[in-house]
Amino acid sequence: MTALDSLTDTAMTATSLLRFATAGSVDDGKSTLVGRLLHDSKSVLADQLAAVQDASLRRGQEAPDLALLTDGLRAEREQGITIDVAYRYFATPRRRFVLADTPGHVQYTRNMVTGASTAELAVVLVDARNGVVEQTRRHAAVAALLRVPHVVLAVNKMDLVDYAEPVFAAIAQEFTAYAASLGIPDVTAIPVSALAGDNVVEPSSHMDWYGGPTVLEHLETVPVVDDPSHAPARFPVQYVIRPQSAEHPDFRGYAGQIASGVLRVGQDVTVLPSGRTSTIAGIDILGRGADVAWAPQSVTVTLTDDIDISRGDIVVPTDGAPAVTQDVEGTVCHVADRPLTVGQRVLLKHTTRTVKAVVKAIPSQLALDDLSLHADPGQLAANDIGRVVLRTAEPLALDAYADSRRTGSFLLIDPADGTTLTAGMAGEAFGGGRGGIGRCADR
Questions:
Q1: Using an 8 Å Cβ cutoff, are 185 and 149 in contact?
Q2: CA dist 283 to 2, 49, 354, Å?
Q3: Is 30 strand, coil or helix?
Q4: What pTM does this model have?
Q5: Contact partners, residue 5, CB within 8 Å, separation at least 6
Q6: Distance from C-alpha of 189 to C-alpha of 132, rounded to nearest angstrom
Q7: Measured in whole angstroms, how far is the alpha carbon of residue 292 from the centre of its chain?
Q8: Which helix (H) or strand (E) element contains residue 29?
Q9: Strand, coil or helix: 396
Q10: C-alpha–C-alpha distance, residues 80 and 84, integer Å
Q11: What's the pLDDT tens digit per position in 342-378?
């Protein structure tokens, strides 16, 4: 079997890690669901569980409050809400997981953007008594903006509606239709009771009408591995290796992490933004030579020609190079407390490259509750999502975010103090269904 023949099998073995984010309205029981998932999957250490039991007793609760397993800040425990993104790492025999527990409050929308930006799956929680509410639609819209490929609708507190199938079916139908209008490709609805443990890790005896997977079973089996050979190769250079030693007097290697696709020895490549061309002479992975490498491996690449390459350049296949531009247009979520304004000078960070830029226009602000556009808002405040037009001082090789989440994303940074201002996604906003949503107004 050749390296290319075994590429997909090797990639699937190497990517048995699922990154997922949870989101839900206040008091929908999201932290309890996460706590139940960790507890019932035996992913909680004995001292952690003892601390939760002690804290629960001090608050007058007889049973352990599993929400305390993720709500770690003092303010979160006092108020009974999630404020910051809490990351949890756990594993089962079938898969490893990185969980980002995100806040439900509208004023923490930016925190959900942070947690879901690298997620391959989002769990959106709703209270069975309340159904789909404004914040549910907001979380679904954020998941669609970030191109999260899989969404789980967890209809919680089914015990409080007598485990009624019609209640679950109505909520699932409403949410699935809304998600489809946003272009979300895959929605799995699961009825659960986080407090009682129904359908979280173990199947529920109270809902024999439901024949689907539990939450954990779905997380363990959802297909999240894409064939890397189907994506265009993108290799942002992070570091130029030039030892100039007696042993390696002429060595010149380019180190970094492959953002997408596959690189092969003998492949014709172009270095952007300069446009210079060469051929891959060698690939080094962890000190060993290889004929082929793929995302997200960290490698050192050598070329047949000595050309000017530095940190921030991107090596791409000559026959599949993205367009180079100084005019960047995309959808952004503003994460800083001070607003983003037209005419503001910023730094734009794209992969390993940081360039100066100016905000030329803010054509629209997106209202996530009803997906309406507010034209020419003039500025974006904290947690606002809108369209921006930027002019960069140097050309950039951006892909559309719809094509590559890694090379289609960027950050806007305050040049004065290095504060992250805005998280951006190049290109159109949503994946399908609503043709005009998130698109630039006529200028």
A1: yes
A2: 16, 47, 26
A3: helix
A4: 0.82
A5: none
A6: 13
A7: 27
A8: none
A9: strand
A10: 13
A11: 999 999 999 999 999 999 999 999 887 677 889 999 9
